[in-house]
Amino acid sequence: MMRHGFVLLTFCATLMGCAVAPAQERRPIAWDGFGQNPNKVSSRPLVTKRSAANAPPVQDSPNQERERVLGTLRPYSEAWWAVHDEIEAENDRQLGTKLVICPRCVRQPSPGEDVTGSIR
Questions:
Q1: How many structural domains comprise the chain?
Q2: Does 37 map to a domain?
Q3: What value does the mean pLDDT take over residues 86-104?
Q4: Distances from the Cα of 74 to the Cα of 64, 68, 90, 110, angstroms
Q5: Where does the pLDDT of residue 64 fall: very low under 50, low under 70, confident under 90, or very high at 90 and above?
Q6: Contact 112, 92 (CB under 8 A)
């Protein structure tokens, strides 16, 4: 038991040593002369993230007006379901424009194959 405790203590101490090391510390790297010098500081300007104040205006979602109307309707009424279905259809359309499925990933069934997938 004492031996396991010592091993665990040594392991934790080793991990703490890794966590304490400064993350931004740059040590020189041995450079062989080929390619770019890894020790040379890049002359490219740093790209900073845009803050919320500098963010471009958000484009109006086609569903924004529908969602506002949906909030005014009685939940689960016929009109509510009609607007809800329009919102879902628009969301599906937007997803379809972003979703790309590789043709090799989709297996086309052969003409003689049972497409119902019944278990025998």
A1: 1
A2: no
A3: 87
A4: 18, 13, 21, 49
A5: very high
A6: no
Question: Residue 30's pLDDT band (boundaries 50, 70, 90)?
Answer: confident
Please name which of 57, 84, 60 lies closest in space to residue 72, comparing C-alpha atoms: 84
| H or E stretch at 6 | helix 2-20
Distance CA 91, CA 96 (A): 9
Is residue 56 situated within a structural domain? no
Residue 76 domain boundaries: 63-100
Question: Is the model's pLDDT at 39 over the cut of 60?
Answer: yes
Residue 71 inside a domain? The answer is yes
Q: Quick one: pLDDT at residue 71? A: 92
Could you give the angle at the alpha carbon of 83 between the alpha carbons of 79 and 89, nearest 5°? Answer: 145
Angstrom CA distances, 12 to 5, 15, 20, 71, 111, stand at 11, 5, 12, 55, 61
| Residue 16 structure tokens | 């703490």
